[in-house]
Write a structure and sequence with these properties.
- The protein folds into two domains: about 170 residues, no CATH class; about 110 residues.
- It is globular.
- The strands form three sheets. It has an eight-stranded antiparallel barrel with strand order 8-9-10-11-12-13-14-15. A five-stranded antiparallel sheet has the order 1-2-3-6-7.
- It is mostly beta strands.
- The N terminus is likely disordered.
- It has five helices and 15 strands.
- A hairpin with a 2-residue loop joins strand 11 and strand 12.
Length: about 300
C-alpha cells in the first residue's frame, strides 16, 4: 500500500459507477511496463503486513522514487488456505508466534522466508511519477487529482498489465477488487464445455421465519461464453446476481462472480457444477446447512 498525504479515501463499497470498459485497458503496454517490480533493489524497505492488521491480510513490499513513482508488490494467496495463513485469527498461522500482531507485521525476514511464490498471485499496484504532486523523499507524498493507478500481474515470468483506474475510484475493498482483476484475466475468455450449457434451476430452504420457511431459488443460464445467475427469494436478500466467469478442472465447472458487488468476490469459486450420469449438481448454494453439499439442479425451458 502507498503512504500518501491528502489522498481522498474512497467510500464506495462497490464499483457500480465505474465503467470497466472505459477505465480498464487490459494488457496494454506503456513506458512503465518495463519495470521489473520483483527486482531485489526495490525490496530495500523490506516486507510487511498492512499496518491496520484488519481485513484481508497479505505480504507486500513498497518502493518510492521520485523519478519512477510509487508501487507496492502484493502476494495474494491462490486459495483460502494460503490466504488464511496470514489472518490474525488463525491460531496456527503467521501471527500465532508473536506476542502482538504489530510485531509480526514488520518482521520482514520471516515474512519473506514464508512466501512460496508458486502459491501466490503476485500483484503490483503502480502510481507513476507524473501523478505525484510533491514529495520530501520520505515516502509521504500528495497525488494529483487526476492520478491513475496501473495494475500488473506476474504471470509466466512476465508482468501483464491488467488495467488502469483513477486513484479516487479504487473501491474501499481493494483486496476484492484485485481478485476481480486477476480472475477476469484468467477466466473471462474461457469457453464453457457444451455439456454444461443450458438453463437450470434449484431451490433450497434457509431458515424458519414467523411467516414460513425462507428460501432461495437459483436460476442459471449457461452459454458458451458466459453464465447468468438470477434469484427468486422468500424472506432472503437478493445478492450476487449477474454474470459469472468459469473454468473447468477435473470434471468440475468452477464459477466465479464477475459483477460489481465487492462483497460477492472470493478467491475460491462461488459455485461448482458437475454432471454425473446425466444429472446436474451444484455446490455453494444456500446457507451453512447446504453450502458444502452437492444439490441437484433441474434443466428448465428457456424463458
Amino acid at each position: 500500500m502507498f503512504s500518501c498525504k491528502g489522498q481522498k479515501e474512497n467510500e464506495q463499497e462497490n464499483i457500480s459507477k465505474i465503467s470497466l470498459k472505459s477505465s480498464i485497458q487490459k494488457e496494454k503496454t506503456d513506458k512503465n511496463s518495463i519495470i521489473n517490480f520483483l527486482d531485489k533493489k526495490y525490496q530495500k524497505n523490506g516486507f510487511s503486513i498492512p499496518d491496520d492488521i484488519n481485513g484481508n491480510l497479505y505480504p507486500s513490499y513498497s518502493y518510492y522514487d521520485k523519478s519512477i513513482g510509487s508501487f507496492s508488490v502484493n502476494y495474494i494467496g491462490k486459495n483460502d488456505i494460503t490466504q488464511y495463513f496470514w489472518s490474525v485469527d488463525n491460531k496456527k498461522g503467521f501471527f500465532s508466534k508473536y506476542s502482538s500482531p504489530e510485531d509480526g507485521s514488520i518482521d520482514s525476514k520471516n515474512i519473506e522466508k514464508l512466501i512460496n511464490e508458486k502459491d501466490y498471485y503476485i500483484f503490483a499496484v503502480f502510481l507513476p511519477s507524473q501523478y505525484i504532486k510533491s514529495d520530501n523523499q520520505n515516502e509521504d507524498f500528495e497525488i494529483k487529482d487526476d492520478a491513475i493507478n496501473s495494475f500488473y500481474l506476474y504471470d509466466n515470468n512476465k508482468w501483464i498489465e491488467l488495467g488502469k483506474i483513477a486513484s479516487n475510484n479504487i473501491p474501499k475493498k481493494d483486496f476484492q477488487y484485485y481478485i476481480k482483476l486477476i480472475q477476469e484475466h484468467y477466466y473471462k475468455e474461457n469457453k464453457i464445455p457444451e455439456k454444461y450449457q443450458g438453463n437450470f434451476s434449484t431451490s433450497v430452504d434457509t431458515e424458519e421465519t414467523m411467516t414460513g420457511m425462507a428460501s432461495i431459488t437459483y436460476n442459471f443460464t449457461i452459454a458458451e461464453n458466459k453464465i447468468l445467475l438470477e434469484k427468486d427469494t422468500y424472506h432472503e436478500t437478493i445478492n450476487c446476481e449477474g454474470i459469472y466467469y468459469s473454468f473447468e478442472e477435473n470434471g468440475i465447472l468452477n464459477i466465479y462472480y464477475a459483477g460489481e458487488d465487492m462483497d460477492c468476490i472470493s478467491i475460491t469459486p462461488k459455485f461448482s457444477i458437475k454432471v454425473e450420469k446425466g444429472k446436474y449438481y451444484i455446490k455453494g448454494i444456500g446457507g451453512e446447512g447446504t453450502i458444502n453439499s452437492w444439490i441437484e439442479m433441474e434443466p428448465t425451458k428457456t424463458k
